[in-house]
Specification:
- This protein is α/β, with parallel strands linked by helices.
- Helix content is about 20%, strand content about 25%.
- Helix 3 packs parallel to helix 5.
- The two termini are about 40 Å apart.
Length: about 350
């Protein structure tokens, strides 16, 4: 039943407030983990899978002071293969009649508007779950299950502390910066400013923004100290990077051994280049996809299909097609397990 609106008694004279107290849910920042900061609307309504060509190149050559005597020279080898991801259709429906509309009006809200917003939120929540955990986790779907992603545990600090609440604030900042450095190493993007996203539960990431790093470890220009987040942001900015700190409480308890999971990602990669002899020249082949983390949908917002029902009822079906989170370059993804 889509609406529970019991009758009530009122004292007359009385005054009814025109506003409504509505529930607040966390606005997940998990979609910032994807390239462009959100799902890409590329699918057709009936596309059951997504395919993406991938090339691998191995260089070979012959060299010598004299011309080689053999008639056949080695050549670079290009190997093409195809990677793919399944798509899933999400559907949510609601029905109502004139009595339901009247019951909602007594509580001073539009049932039609409320149910449409509820359906849109439901689609977004399940798309978020698909992004992080996948519709079928056993198949490697979702960022937390991505094959090839780097998984690390927060090591003890110099005092033996292993939880975020007790960890040395400065050492925590330097450890997170090390994870960013390692992602740049794995993607060969050192020296190029990139966008990084840290996504984790509020109880884990929140304290990093409201602590203070000791003055002897980090000092900003003009004196004063920064938080762990401030230290990471400042050092990243010195290297041309931007860092986003976003929250998703579904990551609580999803790390190794029941700890919290913190996802560190570089959603897009850049193509390093040089005007002279370029040892990365093959990467200039077009069309080149520079995204590292993807989720695809068939539309920006779920489609609504309204149908009449017998005896004056109305049925509204909402639907959209979505992929799970797809780490096409898993070397740009690190999953950090840490206890709050």
């Amino acid at each position: 039943m889509p609406l529970i609106a019991p009758t009530f008694e009122m004292v007359v004279p009385s005054f009814m407030m025109p506003q409504i107290v509505v529930p607040y849910s966390q606005v997940s920042g998990a979609f910032e983990l994807t390239a462009d900061g959100g799902p890409r609307v590329l699918l057709g309504e009936d596309d059951y899978a997504v395919y993406l060509p991938r090339l691998d190149m191995r260089s070979r050559m012959a060299a010598g002071q004299a011309l080689p005597g053999q008639m056949e020279l080695p050549s670079p080898e290009i190997v093409a293969n195809m990677i793919s991801a399944p798509t899933y259709r999400q559907q949510v429906a609601f029905t109502y009649d004139r009595d339901d509309i009247a019951a909602a009006a007594r509580y001073n809200f539009s049932l039609d508007a409320a149910m449409r917003l509820a359906c849109q939120q439901t689609h977004a929540q399940y798309a978020r779950l698909a992004l992080l955990y996948g519709y079928n986790p056993a198949n490697g779907e979702g960022f937390l299950n991505a094959t090839g992603a780097t998984a690390v545990n927060l090591p003890p600090d110099s005092n033996g502390n292993t939880t975020i609440s007790t960890y040395d604030n400065g050492q925590l900042a330097f450890y997170l910066l090390t994870q960013m450095l390692q992602i740049k190493n794995r993607t060969y993007n050192l020296g190029i400013g990139r966008r990084f996203v840290f996504c984790g539960p509020q109880e884990t990431l929140g304290p990093m923004a409201y602590n203070v790093v000791q003055l002897v470890q980090f000092q900003r220009a003009g004196a004063g100290t920064a938080s762990t987040v401030g230290t990471v942001n400042q050092v990243a900015d010195d290297n041309g990077d931007t860092v986003m700190w976003v929250y998703d409480d579904t990551l609580k308890g999803k790390g190794a051994g029941g700890t919290d999971a913190i996802i560190i990602a570089m959603p897009e990669v850049a193509t390093p280049s040089t005007p002279r002899l370029n040892t990365n020249k093959f990467a200039q082949l077009q069309p080149n996809l520079e995204a590292c983390m993807l989720q695809l949908t068939d539309m920006v917002a779920p489609m609504e299909i309204t149908s009449p029902l017998p005896r004056g009822g109305t049925d509204v079906l909402t639907r959209m097609r979505v992929t799970s989170g797809w780490a096409i370059r898993p070397e740009a993804l690190t999953i950090l397990s840490a206890a709050a």
